[in-house]
């Protein structure tokens, strides 16, 4: 088991002092049987009844459209301890169809539910809006039904950690819709995937936990407290059942064996080590250390091999071809080095708050957090070829090779932006109602 005996007392004491966290209910609208009509509903209120208490959803939209991106709209959320959810109510104000106002036959719609929550969880309810059926009568009569999330089918799913809601969301990448959510204790940060064992590995900073999620069942199967760390934030899974974890507070870097849960080795590294990159071809670990303006290159046993001085506050890293790229949000630059010799080749101005870099095929993508853009740099070029405006605070990125999409965490919008990698245009957003921190695809 992962939970070691020597950490049991620490684990118990941590839970005693940690604040009690509530369950989270996430509500989404899914469009069913769409038509060419543009229908806009103005919303007065959305609420749920739990143990005879009426609780209004937080962050519910003032209006919803039948033409929402990817046929899904976030309707709001609530937090609560436990109880039986037996009803969801939507109170409508007005409706317009193709720009003309229509009267509404029934302004308050009550949808029955029967879902009992006994322990901390994060769960999704999906309101299905049948557009075609809603237009059958002379007066507009919205046809809604309700579904509770099911265990997602294994396939090409996007997993998103949200550190402000103790939640991992699951998005089906073929339709770009949220299909489920899962509770992860206290502020999940970085996550990665063990494809051989079909597991997600998640690090949570507040409780110093490393959590293991069975992907096929979407179930938390194990967790253990990490030693000698304070606020661990980043991890990277490497072959042979190992995971690297950085803690910017203690400046410790850990190598943990997932099969036993044992700490293999740790090293104090620089000042506030953060982002991690493992390159499978070089078989080397790269860790950026913003406070000492360095990137450290390590072996898989955490032996220090090389140290590179970089800019003012180096963060995200990527390798593309023969070049190694490092983003520096303090200067907006991307520093470029030659792999192997580690000679500095130059700097590329990307944009304000250049924080993360992601390489895919023959391009490098840079998220410029402070200006809301993604920069595109082609292989072996020392200039930005294109900027794509995506929204507030773009952060982590990942790409779907099957779909040809780049997913971008938009922390300032509590959403995921999607870029078509052929046209290099933003094609839509997936609203989550929570701040995305990290992304990983299961394809």
Automatic annotation (TrEMBL):
> Which InterPro entries has this protein been placed in?
Haem_d1_sf, Host-pathogen_enzymatic-act, WD40/YVTN_repeat-like_dom_sf
What the entry lists under SUPFAM superfamilies is as follows:
C-terminal (heme d1) domain of cytochrome cd1-nitrite reductase (SSF51004)
The protein's superkingdom reads Bacteria
* TM spans (from-to): none
Q: What is this protein called?
A: YncE family protein
Question: Which species expresses this protein natively?
Answer: Thermodesulfatator autotrophicus
């Amino acid at each position: 088991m992962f939970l070691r005996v020597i950490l049991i007392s620490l684990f118990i004491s941590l839970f005693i002092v940690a604040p009690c966290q509530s369950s989270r209910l996430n509500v989404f609208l899914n469009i069913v049987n769409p038509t060419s009509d543009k229908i806009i509903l103005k919303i007065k209120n959305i609420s749920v009844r739990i143990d005879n208490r009426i609780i209004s959803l937080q962050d519910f939209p003032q209006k919803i459209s039948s033409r929402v991106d990817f046929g899904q709209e976030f309707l709001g959320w609530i937090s609560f301890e436990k109880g039986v959810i037996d009803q969801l109510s939507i109170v409508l104000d007005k409706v317009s169809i193709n720009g003309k106002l229509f009267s509404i036959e029934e302004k308050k719609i009550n949808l029955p539910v029967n879902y009992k929550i006994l322990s901390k969880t994060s769960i999704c309810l999906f309101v299905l809006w049948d557009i075609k059926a809603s237009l059958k009568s002379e007066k507009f009569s919205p046809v809604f039904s309700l579904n509770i999330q099911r265990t997602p089918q294994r396939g090409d799913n996007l997993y998103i950690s949200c550190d402000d809601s103790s939640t991992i969301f699951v998005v089906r990448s073929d339709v770009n819709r949220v299909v489920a959510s899962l509770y992860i204790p206290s502020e999940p940060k970085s996550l990665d995937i063990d494809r051989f064992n079909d597991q997600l590995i998640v690090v949570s900073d507040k409780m110093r936990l490393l959590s293991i999620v069975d992907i096929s069942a979407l179930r938390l199967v194990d967790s253990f407290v990490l030693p000698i760390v304070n606020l661990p934030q980043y991890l990277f899974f490497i072959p042979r059942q190992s995971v690297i974890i950085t803690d910017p507070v203690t400046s410790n870097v850990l190598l943990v064996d997932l099969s036993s849960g044992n700490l293999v080795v740790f090293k104090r590294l620089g000042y506030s080590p953060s982002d991690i990159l493992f390159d499978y071809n070089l078989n080397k670990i790269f860790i950026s250390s913003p406070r000492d303006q360095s990137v450290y290159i390590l072996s898989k046993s955490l032996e220090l091999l090389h140290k590179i001085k970089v800019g003012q506050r180096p963060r995200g890293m990527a390798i593309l071809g023969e070049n190694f790229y490092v983003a520096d949000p303090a200067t907006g630059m991307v520093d470029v080095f030659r792999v192997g010799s580690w000679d500095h080749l130059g700097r590329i101005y990307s944009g304000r708050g250049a924080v993360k870099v992601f390489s895919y095929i023959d391009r490098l993508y840079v998220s410029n957090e402070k200006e809301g853009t993604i920069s595109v740099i082609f292989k072996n070029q020392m200039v930005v070829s294109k900027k794509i405006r995506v929204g507030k605070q773009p952060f982590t990125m990942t790409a779907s090779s099957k779909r040809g999409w780049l997913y971008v965490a938009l922390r300032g919008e509590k959403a995921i932006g999607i870029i078509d990698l052929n046209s290099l245009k933003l094609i839509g957003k997936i609203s989550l109602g929570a701040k995305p921190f990290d992304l990983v695809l299961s394809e």
